[in-house]
Amino acid sequence: MRAFIRAVLATLVLPLAAYQPPAAGPTQLNADKDAYEIYSLLLRQEPQADWHIKAWAIFERTGGYVGAGDCIRNGTADSALLDDYLAKNKTPTLLKRKFDLPQYALVGPEEIKHIGEAHVPYADEKAAEDPKFPLNALVYFTVSAVGFNVDHTGALVYVTHYCGSLCGGGAYHLMAKVDRKWRAERDWCRWNS
């Protein structure tokens, strides 16, 4: 009987001990870290130099920027990257406080309404003292979810800024990870008003 029990245990335990899980791709934690590194890099570059932005008001949810049709498809030949971007942007998600910016606030629709009514992007010169304006912001930024390619060395993201009626801009950004750092490779479908 003991020999039988040992044989059964050996057939059950040995395969478990030898099991190695398949090599996993980038973890969600790494994707999250990379997304916020990309956001922070691009948000520092988005404002115009004469705006003197020292603090960013960022809409609290990612935008579902999938309606650009041929424009977005003409920007990258990497179908896996584009598929990941489109899938992640079907539904808005809440952003986390993981930006690497000197000062920022995640703002909701009510704050955005007040920022949009100000019509002037010169945040440090004409900032409202009214508490409705987070960080005295007169411009706010939105970001899409970040799509990644299969080996996590390329990314696609959409970043915009709004500063009131007929005042804003944005673009799709193709990013590349080189020597463990993200850099902007190119942008397209840029608009300004």
Report on the structure:
There is one protein chain. A hairpin with a 5-residue loop joins strand 5 and strand 6 (168-178). The protein has one domain (27-192). It is of the alpha/beta class. The radius of gyration is 23 Å and the shape is globular. The protein has helices spanning 2-18, 28-45, 70-73, 79-88, 109-118; strands spanning 56-59, 104-107, 140-143, 147-148, 154-162, 168-178, 181-192.
Write the layout of secondary structure elements.
Elements lengths: L1 H17 L9 H18 L10 E4 L10 H4 L5 H10 L15 E4 L1 H10 L21 E4 L3 E2 L5 E9 L5 E11 L2 E12 L1
Parallel strand pairs: 1-2, 1-3
Antiparallel strand pairs: 3-5, 4-5, 5-6, 6-7
Please estimate the helix content. 25-40%
Q: What's the domain count?
A: 1
SSE string, helices as H and strands as E: HHEHHEHEEEEE
Mean pLDDT across the residues is: 76
Strand content: 15-25%
End-to-end gap: 83 Å
Specify the biggest β-sheet. Answer: 7 strands, mixed
Radius of gyration from the alpha-carbon trace, in angstroms: 23 Å
Report the uncertain regions: 7-27, 120-132
How would you concisely characterize the structure shown here?
By secondary structure, this protein is of the alpha/beta class.
